[in-house]
Amino acid sequence: MGADCLIRKSEESKGNKSGGDGWRGQLIIKEGKSNKSGSDGQRGALIVVEGCDRTGKSTQAKKLVDYLSENGRQAVLMCFPERSTQIGGIINGYLSKDCNLDDRAIHLLFSANRWEQLPLIQLHLQAGITVIIDRYAFSGVAFSAAKPGMSLEWCKGSDSGLPRPDLVLFLDLTPAQAEERGDYGTERYETRQFQARVRENYHKLVDDYWKVIDANRSIDELHEVLRAIVIKTVDNVEDKELGTLW
Ligand SMILES: Nc1ncnc2c1ncn2[C@@H]1O[C@H](COP(=O)(O)OP(=O)(O)OP(=O)(O)O)[C@@H](O)[C@H]1O
Ligand SMILES: [Mg+2]
């Protein structure tokens, strides 16, 4: 798992003069020229980018937010784990192998890290702003359930009730293909064997609001595929009520 949120937090905080309510600085907000999706009271879309490590999630999530903004739709980028919070700090320590935790305890902390960001997600959606999230509950379940003795059903429990995305873009690569993009890294979970089990779990989670995308193409080719799906979702949210997991 890359440290994207942590990096973004420090970049953002350099220019964060608002000193406001503590929310700012935790995400990148891109304002479109006009808020096409929000102007008529329509809620924003909730779109999640998922996949094993190094499948291009962060690259594509950022490009999607830029694309939406450039095309008149307000969009924000969020990312899990959100390492800037207290809970996120513990998760960061665990992933960097600075501390050990029981498998169930860390699973629940990953989940709590999503729950603590729920008010912010809701705020944006209600304001007509599309939220693109780099990893969500599906990562939580797919990774935890790849550990011995952790069942998929038990892992799903703590995320039950979180908003169900309008769309999950599952970027699919074999672990060998992902490894061609550079070493997995030194964080916990970053081995080919573990990633293979995570991938199996993802495939068990596929649902009708998912798009399974072959991610074995160039950054620009993949972006073109994704943006066509995303713009359709954003423009067709209308008054559809957001569901809940699972
Ligand atoms: N379509 C692609 N083809 C080749 N290389 C890519 C592609 N997309 C991203 N990369 C490169 O692969 C690496 C991983 O990309 P990225 O950080 O977007 O993946 P990720 O899924 O967010 O990874 P992680 O799970 O570790 O957070 C980066 O070096 C990136 O430049
Ligand atoms: Mg990433």
Structure description:
With 246 residues, this protein is of the alpha/beta class. The chain has helices at residues 4-14, 57-70, 86-95, 103-115, 118-126, 137-144, 152-157, 175-179, 192-205, 219-235; strands at residues 28-30, 46-50, 75-79, 130-134, 167-172, 210-214. The protein is built from ten helices and six strands, in the order αββαβαααβααβααβα. Helix 2 (57-70) crosses helix 10 and helix 3 (86-95) runs antiparallel to helix 4 (103-115). The longest helix has 17 residues, at 219-235. The chain is globular, with a radius of gyration of 17 Å.
Largest sheet strand order: 1-3-4-2-5-6
Q: In percent, how helical is the residue content?
A: 40-55%
Largest sheet: 6 strands, mixed
Measured by DSSP, the beta-strand proportion falls in: 5-15%
* Distinct bound molecules: adenosine-5'-triphosphate, magnesium ion
What class do helices, strands and sheet pairing give? alpha/beta
Helical region count? 10
Globular, elongated, flat, extended or rod-shaped: what is the shape? globular
List low-pLDDT spans: 6-27, 33-38
Oligomer: single chain
Question: What is the typical, i.e. mean, pLDDT?
Answer: 88
The tally of beta strands, per DSSP, is 6
Terminus-to-terminus distance = 24 Å
Roughly how many Å is the radius of gyration? 17 Å
Listing every helix as H and every strand as E from the N terminus to the C terminus, the arrangement reads: HEEHEHHHEHHEHHEH
